[in-house]
Amino acid sequence: MNERRIIWATMRAVIETDRFKRKKSGKKSKSHWNLFQSLLNYFVLLLKLSGLYRRGLRNAKNIRINKAVFEFNSLPLSFNGLKILHLSDLHIDTLPGIEDLIIEKIRPLEYDLCLITGDYRKDTQGPSHHIYPAIEKIIRNIRAQEGIYGILGNHDSYLMVKHLERMGVHMLINESIELPRKDEKIIITGTDDPYYYFTDMAIEALEETEGPFKIAMVHTSELFDIAAKNHYDLYLCGHTHGGQICLPGGFPLITHQFEGKQFFRGKWKFNELQGYTSSGCGVSAIPIRFNCPGEITLIELIRNI
Fold first, then answer.
1. What is the domain-level CATH number for residue 115?
2. Angle, helices 132-140/98-106, rounded to nearest 10 degrees
3. 0.85 exceeded by the pTM?
4. Contact status, residue 285 vs residue 296, Cβ threshold 8 Å
């Protein structure tokens, strides 16, 4: 482990033990996830009494393949047509057997690169060993010749990094890598989660990297302005689940994000920065969805000629 990783892991361990959320604004607040989970249990009871719970469970298992095409003037010609499998918010232990549903969906897809934007488990605290067999099963079924890269979400622990890397996921923790093709390259930067675990190291990672074309992987959309300021081209995130439980028309009741409604789901743009917020493969807190299917995203990058 390099010195920078050691510093990050030490800081992350302290924050996880403290159980306070740290935000980019400097605000520090107590996490109320357990209270939120308790309130949701009453909501589940109401759904079961109304007969809607089973429908919501079926909806959660109906994961869709969403395709998104992004066009750039800055994309190196060697990467024209690059296909990215974007997975987010697996929450693998919320819905038993979801790993098999995900594998079934990705098996026929063709892609070059896989990017995973965090939240591998259900809880925000406690052990993670129980999720590793299912996560590893998914990783073994990903055929990405140019690599699998991942970041952590707010439900994940720093202790998970070594296990994910053992499975073959190259974790980017406030770090960047160069992805080469022929004599050209693109940059992929991954930050730690800014929703619970923000530190200046995330901003530094986005500020210090130069390249002709840059992709940012962040669990939430919170760092969109920093990425845009530092000339990133594509920003991939998740976290919101697209709302997970939405009113007809896809209007979300809760998104757990404050950046603006344009960032909570699907494609968006900020100045020259293009972005995509995944609705996620899995579900959090309760295994249901309404008016907001889970997704696996297949992204294609096109060079404007």
1. 3.60.21.10
2. 10
3. yes
4. no
Q: What is the pLDDT of residues 198-252, one digit of tens each?
A: 999 999 999 999 999 999 999 999 999 999 999 999 999 999 999 999 999 988 9
88's tokens: 């987010």
Residue 28, domain member (yes or no): no
How far CA 158 is from CA of 7, 125, 127, 199, 240, in Å, comes to 12, 11, 11, 14, 21
What is the span of the domain harbouring residue 298? 3-14+33-303
Cα 193 to chain centroid, rounded = 9
CB within 8 A of 4, min separation 6: which ones? 174, 175, 201
Taking the C-alpha atoms of residue 114 and residue 289, their distance in angstroms, rounded to an integer, is: 25
- The answer to whether residue 45 sits within a structural domain is yes
Is the Cβ–Cβ distance between 115 and 188 less than 8 Å? yes
Q: Pairing mode, if any, of strands 251-252 and 246-247?
A: antiparallel
The CA distance from 78 to 58, in Å, is 42
Q: What are the tokens at 159? A: 């202790």
Rounded to 5 degrees, what are φ and ψ at 221? -85, 5
| Residue 2 exposure: Cα atoms within 13 Å on the Cβ side | 5
How many independent structural domains does the chain possess? 1
Report if residue 95 sits inside a domain.
Answer: yes
Q: Has residue 127 been placed in a domain? A: yes
The strand ranges marked E within the chain are: 20-22, 28-30, 64-72, 83-87, 113-116, 148-150, 170-171, 175-181, 184-190, 214-217, 234-237, 246-247, 251-252, 266-270, 273-277, 295-303
Q: With contact defined as beta carbons under 8 Å apart, do 72 and 269 qualify?
A: no
pLDDT digits (tens, 9 = 90+) for 155-192: 999 999 999 999 999 999 999 999 999 999 999 999 99
